[in-house]
Design brief:
about 240 residues; alpha+beta; three-stranded antiparallel β-sheet; about 30% strand
Length: about 240
């Protein structure tokens, strides 16, 4: 008989004196080493230890856990997870003029990983912080695109890089018209944002995917959703 995972559990030992554990980190947080304990959704997994390995704006953890494989054997595994919170993104489209409203901004991680200049074309997006997904995406739409949107459609929620990043992204779509543009957008300069607003013909945006000009995952997903759903030929997002 295979021994229960609970019988193998090593009592967790916090890293005493570590920022984010028993000493407040740069954002005043403690107890960041408790994430994962108390989860019971997967009986094949038992978290043994969580170490906080960075003191940055977001949280990098190294978690050790036991995992029961499909053949019944139990092994100890270790994974690093990057926790930056959850986010939301939205595609704004005008079915009358067949246009979409996107952003263009510098992304350092892409720049140091083979992107020619780091200037990525994307849908508006941002972290939820303490807001609900819909409130957050309305905030980001106003800040980045300078648009006050009306009704929004929630499409789906996706884990974009589940091998290492905990973030779950809430995807939305909404119609817009020139009358909805209440500002210039551009983001929040105090947060280091310098965003160019791009209004593109929908067909051009689709061609930019195959041409390698649009390489951001969430943007490709939303543009392909629009193509499959016929949103740019519909007068309703329902």
């Amino acid at each position: 008989m295979t021994e229960p995972l609970s019988d193998r559990l090593i009592h967790p030992t916090a890293t005493a004196g570590c920022a984010g554990v028993d000493i407040p980190d740069s954002r005043g947080r403690t107890g960041l080493d408790r994430t994962g304990f108390g989860l019971h959704g997967n009986p094949n997994v038992e978290v043994e230890r969580v170490e906080v390995t960075s003191d940055g704006w977001h949280v990098l953890r190294r978690s050790t856990f036991t995992y029961r494989r499909r053949d019944g054997t139990v092994e100890t595994q270790q994974r690093e997870t990057y926790d930056r919170g959850n986010g939301a993104t939205i595609l704004l489209y005008d079915p009358e003029r067949r246009t979409v409203l996107l952003t263009k901004q510098f992304r350092f991680p892409a720049y140091v990983n083979a992107h020619p200049d780091g200037m990525l074309i994307e849908t508006a997006a941002g972290l939820l912080d303490d807001d609900t997904p819909e409130v957050a995406i309305r905030r980001e739409t106003s800040e980045e695109l300078g648009v006050a949107i009306g009704e929004v459609q929630h499409l789906f929620d996706l884990y974009m890089s589940p091998g290492s990043v905990t973030e779950r992204v809430h995807f939305y779509a909404a119609r817009y018209s020139p009358a909805d543009r209440t500002g210039s957008g551009g983001g929040v300069p105090d947060e280091g944002e310098d965003i160019e607003v791009l209004e593109l013909p929908f067909d051009t945006a689709l061609d930019m995917i195959s041409g390698g000009e649009i390489v951001d995952g969430k943007t490709v997903i939303l543009l392909q959703w629009a193509a499959m759903s016929g949103a740019l030929t519909s007068k309703s997002i329902a």
